[in-house]
Amino acid sequence: MDKKYPQIIGVGHCCQDSICMVEAYPPEDGSTHITAIDDSQGGGAVATAMAAASRLGVFTGLIANLGDDSTGDKIIKGFEEYGICTGGIRRITGGRSSSSIVMVNPVKGTRTKFPYRDDLPPVAFDEEQTELLRHARILHLDGTNYNNALHAAELAKEYGVTVSLDGCSMQEDNEKNRRLASLADILIMNARYPLRVSERKNLEEAMEYMASLGAGTVISTAGAGGCYAWLDGSMKHFAAFPVRAVDTTGAGDVFHGAFLAAWLEGQSTEACIRFASAVSALKCRKPGGRAGIPDRGEAEKFLERGVF
């Protein structure tokens, strides 16, 4: 095994997407025409974040279970194309890997997802997987498989590894959500997560509560509405970069990967947000969660002429 360990290790959802461009999204029991299909791109919150960070020059890796099916083969191939370390991935005999059909309306730049979630066993965290985690600077999680995320976060705390949580998937038992969020050092959430987990009525109160759980960085993304961060005891809004969005699939995941890439360089929270906002905006110019991810040079050129 290569002894150069990844700087960021991801533990979370990995899947294969089928991106279908449609003329318009139909009402239930209706129909529409698919104008193009792209089944070459992988998906999943953590997996796409690792692809984004890798595209930006960070060595990343994943710890996960996949089925030994053709879908799993495609997922692995996608990781290898991005230079993502797959030494922590285990193939489960007879298992079926996760996949997702994504219907994209290019007129509005919106997408509707139909995911198939696997029923694979929990990650064992064997010796090789544990070594990858122990040597990482950041562990990045989503809550799709709660037991995997909780186990990984507890190990990271033991090893002194910074924990980054994508607050997107939520458990019915809200105490579980709070338990996982309390282990995060970097907590970047979608718009629903802070309100549900905090049980507060407005975002500012929810953000204050989420910050009280212990994370040093607390952010809530709002798509075209930009994002909100809890900084120095108050909530601050950051506008999104304006782009002509073709497809928003994976934009939040890419935000996570770009934020962590900037964080590893020691940039301020505000600078990390600005960089992540630019990278996620650029991603939206192409269909799918990964095809539009810019490299470092593209992102920096965009920032030079962008207004924030």
Structural summary, described in words:
- The N and C termini lie far apart (43 Å).
- The chain has a single domain, classed as Ribokinase (UDP-N-acetylmuramoyl-L-alanine:D-glutamate ligase), CATH 3.40.1190.
- It is 36% helix and 26% strand.
- The protein is globular and about 50 Å long.
- It contains 10 helices and 14 strands.
- The longest helix is centred in the C-terminal third of the chain and has 15 residues.
- α4 links the parallel β9 and β10.
- α3 crosses α4, α8 runs antiparallel to α9 and α9 crosses α10.
- With 308 residues, it is of the alpha/beta class.
- It has a 9-stranded mixed beta sheet, with helices on both faces. Strands 2, 3, 4, 7 and 8 form a 5-stranded mixed beta sheet that branches.
List the main descriptive attributes of the protein structure presented here:
single chain; 308 residues; alpha/beta; UDP-N-acetylmuramoyl-L-alanine:D-glutamate ligase; nine-stranded mixed sheet; 26% strand
Brief description of this entry?
The chain has 308 residues and is an alpha/beta fold. Helices cover 36% and strands 26% of the residues. The protein has a nine-stranded mixed beta sheet, with helices on both faces. Strands 2, 3, 4, 7 and 8 form a five-stranded mixed beta sheet that branches.
